[in-house]
Structure formats: C-alpha cells, structure tokens
Amino acid sequence: MKTLQYIFLVLPSLLIAACSNSDEGGASAQTEVVFMTEVMTRAASSGVLTDFASGDKMHIFASETNSLSDAATSHEAGFNGTTWRTTPTVTIPPGQTRYYFAGYPYDAVNTSPTDLKVSVAKQVDYLYSGSSGKVTEENPNVAFKMHHAMAMIAFNIQSYKGGRLTSIKVGNDTFPTEGTLRVTTGKITPTNYGEYTKNCDYILSSTGWTTDHPAIFVIPFVIGAAGMPVELTIDSEVYSIVLPEMRLTLANKYIFYLLHTEQSVMLQADKTETINLMDDTAAITSEPYSFLRVVHSGSSMVAPMLQGENLHGVIYWGDGMQENYAASGVHEYSGQGDKTLTIDAWNASTVVVGSMTDIKEIDFSKF
Question: Which domain holds residue 202?
C-alpha cells in the first residue's frame, strides 16, 4: 500500500515587492511550503511503518546546497494527524533556494543529517528521505519518498511439538547493535556490537505463519563465515541455531525456516527467503511428520527401518551423536546402561524394528 501524507509548513509573511501592496496597506503574502511523504510498504510484519500517527516526530534538515553537509539546519517536525509543523518555524528568504531532507524518527540528540543515532534495542523502523526536495517561492513543494533503512530477520517455525516461543536472542561481537544513519543514502555505520534479545509470545503450530512472523529489525551487515548464533526460548527450553554466511541489506526481510521437533530446532538453510519489506506472505509447504522413540540397553543398535516416498529425517542415538537418517546404520556405544534412540522423520509411511534383543520400550504414539 502506498501511503501519502501531506505536510504543511506555514511560513511567516513575506513582503511582496509590488508598490500597490505597500501603498494600499494590504496584508503581506504567506508562502506555504508543502511536504509530501510516501511510505511504500505491504509488509504485515509487526513494527514495519505503514502510516504516520498523531504525535509522531521526525527531522527535517534545510540546506543551501543539494550536497548535504553537517552545516544543514535541523528542525523538529511534529505530526498532528493531518499536517506537520516544525520548531522553530522554517522560512525561505525571497529569491533564494533551499533543499530539504528528512529522517524518522526524531531524537533530540541528533543534530546532523549524516549521523542520526540508530539502536537495535529500540526496534524502530528507521526511515530516510534519500534525495532532496528543492524549494523556492515559486515552487514551495517537496515530495519525500521515505525509505526503510533497517534490515529484518524473521523466523517461520513449523512445530511438531507445539509450545510457546517467548524470546529470541541474536548476536555476538560481530553483530552491530548501534550505528549512525545518513539520510541521503540510508547507510548505517556501526558504532557498537553485541547481543540483542527480543521478548515475544507466539503459539507454535505445525503450519507456521504466513504473516506477522516473529521478527527483529537489524542494522544491515554481513554475517561472516562463522555464522551468527541465535537462541530461541520455547517453553523455558533454549534451542540454539546458527544463521549462515550472508549479506543482510537495507529494506529487505530475511525469513529463516525452522523445524521444531521432539528433539531439537533445526534450521532449513536451503529454504531461507529474501523479500522486500513490501511483501511477506510466504507459506510453508507441509510434509507428514513422524516421531519414533526406542529405549534399549544394548552396546550396539541397528536403526529401525523406515520406508516412504521422499523419506528424510534425523536419528539421535541417545549418546549425544546424531546424523541424517539416510546415513544411519549400526551404531556402537561406549557406555553401559539404557539408551534412548529417537528419530525425527518426514514422509515415513512404515517402520520396521529388527531384533528385539535388548529393547525395553518402543513408542509409536506419534508415528
């Protein structure tokens, strides 16, 4: 949806040079500078700006040249639901030209259009105007196209266990948590690094979400070869994944698809989707899920035989070792005592357990 807001800045009277006005004692003319802002977004994600609300504030910077510099004058513009007004009032001298730039939201600590303060902790959809709007007495209109400066990481979790997602923690010493934004380009230069935790409340299901994914605004950056650690808290249990090496760019949302099973949370890296913030309606393709649990006391174990078209899964041997089911076979154990073998499987239609020697329990209830 394209949202247009009209911003009217009413300027003080400007004297008209015509002798008739002066001789007749007529009222001085007023020049009205009209600012239009366009925010393009169709995203259903929580926090993505689709419209301004009464009470919102943003920066408007006035410059005498089209080349923005720290010498630009900063003004606070407040939105009352219909118009924006600046403090102090903006004026344009007769016969002169001014260039205007904008940045959202307003923060009193910011005085320069080249280094607006950005913080991941605030989870704000920071906007910038990009190119300038030129204003003269004859043409006092500005049309700002407000762009998204942040990137977004989101998670679509397909759960076969259910539960409640209550927090997402992301970052390490390479994850930018603060930076400075330039309103002409949207470039954010990182100034601090660390971790960020987003508290949330999402009920998990086997279908995931098509809109309103749990998501985090992040400063655009490059995830290095070591990846980026993420911790998800589900029903008070913490699950760890690592986001792959990739570049996160401004105005893009990255949806990471996860599988939540009886045993773990797994990242489906090959399904990672990049979309513009104008569209995030991706859906999950469903596959039948099965879970098998076997308790045994043997020193070795032959994996149960699963059958099915497009079968795939993960086997957890019960001693800290795991592998893709297709690579499984006989597993040797180093310790004594009972072991619990489990399998997360997709598209399995039948299961065959071989020798029952040393097997104490088999749970088919979720197969």
Answer: 151-179+186-276
